[in-house]
């Protein structure tokens, strides 16, 4: 990505970035708690966070979990005729079962994550994509194991003590089966995970105490996985790349776990296909990406690495990106390949 494409009016300064990082740790953290951990006033955090939310520079949503996919999550690499890449990318982005879409450097490849049931998956792979005269080739990679996804990424801007102070307690156990009210509550949080208890109660027509109790139970079951979505360029990360790696099978778990804790990494997935591991990384520039390749991948014994640079992030965690701002998919009037 080229940072010059970002709107200078929404460039984030050091404190803004630290506030966003706090939201990456806990998207529902109260303003006062963030202020206490960062050592600034609650009024300052409230004003800055309100400005960023109002400008759609950052949104906090529930993060879809690849482990929840009915038949398993997929990574798609779609080769497209030159000049048709935006049409295919935005068609995929309009689908509810596609939370992530990228246009790759060169303008002839679209990358996407698909979370769908078997009928919807089959219609897309065997009907809709082949029927488009813009699609040249589609590579499909099943996600076999997620070592880390975008919900786990933290910009390297807080010290460990601050991260620990903001980190919610781990799930107390497996989640209980959500009932109808739970599902309605999760639907509201999918659009805006920072809605207050009062706002959620009003939307659901239920007492605020019920909302608090339900949220606590959902959090204990690990169902409140929030994601602070922001254009990485505004966080000083000008280069976004997907690294398709070939790792000896006996070292796959070790290498995946080692990459998952690197601050540059915003996703590590074991996959089917010619590469068996995919790592998505944010770097300040190409020189930093080179250092990551030589200093991190090299010592891990990666046999082969295909580096694919993202030219444009079209959709992240269910939100469409437009010039550094985020809009819900329903707000984006784009052509679509429907489910």
From TrEMBL:
Q: Which organism is it from?
A: Kitasatospora paracochleata
Residue ranges constituting the HTH asnC-type domain according to the UniProt record = 178-238
One annotated GO molecular function is: DNA binding
**Pfam families the UniProt entry points to:** AsnC_trans_reg, HTH_AsnC-type
Q: Which residues cross the membrane?
A: none
* Keyword Transcription (UniProt): yes
This protein's name: DNA-binding Lrp family transcriptional regulator
InterPro entries per the UniProt record, alphabetical: AsnC-type_HTH_dom (IPR000485), Dimeric_a/b-barrel (IPR011008), Tscrpt_reg_AsnC-like (IPR019888), Tscrpt_reg_AsnC/Lrp_C (IPR019887), WH-like_DNA-bd_sf (IPR036388), WH_DNA-bd_sf (IPR036390)
Q: Give the record's keywords alphabetically.
A: DNA-binding, Transcription, Transcription regulation
């Amino acid at each position: 990505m080229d940072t010059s494409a970002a709107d200078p009016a929404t460039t984030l300064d050091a404190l803004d970035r630290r506030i966003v990082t706090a939201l990456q740790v806990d998207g529902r953290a109260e303003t006062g708690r963030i202020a206490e951990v960062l050592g600034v006033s609650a009024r300052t955090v409230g004003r800055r966070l309100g400005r960023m939310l109002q400008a759609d520079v950052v949104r906090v949503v529930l993060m879809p979990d690849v482990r929840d996919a009915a038949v398993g999550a997929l990574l798609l690499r779609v080769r497209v005729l030159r000049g048709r890449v935006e049409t295919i990318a935005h068609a995929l982005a309009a689908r509810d079962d596609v939370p992530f879409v990228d246009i790759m450097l060169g303008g002839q490849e679209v990358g996407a994550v698909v979370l769908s049931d078997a009928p919807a998956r089959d219609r897309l792979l065997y009907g809709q994509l082949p029927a488009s005269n813009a699609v040249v080739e589609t590579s499909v990679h099943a996600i076999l194991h997620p070592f880390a996804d975008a919900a786990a990424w933290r910009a390297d801007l807080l010290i460990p003590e601050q991260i620990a102070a903001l980190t919610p307690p781990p799930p107390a156990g497996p989640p209980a089966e959500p009932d109808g009210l739970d599902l309605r509550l999760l639907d509201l949080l999918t659009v805006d995970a920072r809605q207050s208890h009062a706002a959620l109660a009003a939307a659901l027509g239920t007492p605020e105490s019920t909302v608090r109790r339900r949220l606590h139970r959902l959090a204990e079951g690990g169902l409140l996985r929030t994601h602070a979505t922001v254009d990485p360029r505004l966080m000083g990360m000008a280069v976004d790349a997907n690294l398709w790696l070939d790792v000896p099978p006996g070292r796959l778990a070790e290498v995946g776990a080692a990459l998952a804790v690197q601050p540059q990494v915003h996703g590590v997935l074991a996959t089917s296909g010619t590469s068996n591991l995919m790592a998505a990384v944010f770097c300040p520039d190409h020189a930093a990406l080179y250092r990551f390749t030589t200093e991190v991948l090299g010592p891990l014994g990666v046999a082969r690495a295909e580096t694919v640079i993202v030219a444009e992030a079209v959709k992240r965690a269910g939100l469409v990106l437009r010039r550094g701002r985020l809009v819900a998919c329903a707000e984006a009037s784009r052509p679509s390949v429907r489910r």
